[in-house]
């Protein structure tokens, strides 16, 4: 399923802006000793990122690296908020994006705010269905266009026995695949709290 290109690039990591409609696959690593860890690849199998969880972290810190081992950012749960809130921080600890859940009668809802590399303030709304098997990520600053679509495979044998989650995410041309992957991991973390 192709998504329309966005009018202006959206994202922070220029080298991970989708050039065409891309599908990325986030797969939770089973039996990981370090907590929730993920491998993130393109649908054709090309590896993009590694996500390493930390068992001893109160904030559930996850370190995201590219395939060359470069530390890109960390995903941390922030405490003392009414709604579940995650901070995406660069290696120096500076917050580059915040993902905050919002109350939704059915399904889940979260808003990601950040400043794109072009200096524009961005707000992406992630809205999932009742079972959180699908979610659209919509750009509220560019007329509500869908910039990514998450589709989770529901209850495969591995999911039942190992608690493994797999997400397929279609990303529109011009959108940062790294930040979309970070939003998906935040959704997974929030769902794990239920």
TrEMBL record:
Among InterPro entries, the record links this protein to: LOR, LOR_sf, Tubby-like_C
Q: Which PANTHER family match?
A: PTHR31087, TUBBY C 2 FAMILY PROTEIN
- Similarity comment: family membership: Belongs to the LOR family.
- Protein name per its UniProtKB record: DUF567-domain-containing protein
- Source organism per entry reads Westerdykella ornata
